[in-house]
Amino acid sequence: MAARSASLTIAAMNTSTSSSSTPSGAGAAAPLLPPQLPPQLPPQLPRIAVLATGGTIAGAAADVTNTSGYQAGVVGVDQLLSVVPALSTVARIAPEQIASVDSKDMAMALWTTLAQRINTLLADADIDGVVITHGTDTLEETAYLLHLTVKSDKPVVLTAAMRPASALSADGPLNLLNAVTVAAHAGSRGQGVLVAFNNKIHSARDVVKTSTYAVDAFHSPEIGALGWVQDGRVEFQRCVVRPHTLATEFVIGAKWPHVEIVASYAGVSRIAVDALVAVGVRGIVVAGTGNGSIHASLQQALADAASQGVVVVRSSRVGSGHVMRNGAAADDALGFVSAGSLNPYKARVLLMLALAAGGTGPVALQKIFDTY
Ligand code: SIN
Question: Which protein residues touch ligand 1 with a CB less than 6 Å away?
Answer without folding.
Answer: 54-56, 72, 102-104, 135-137, 160, 162
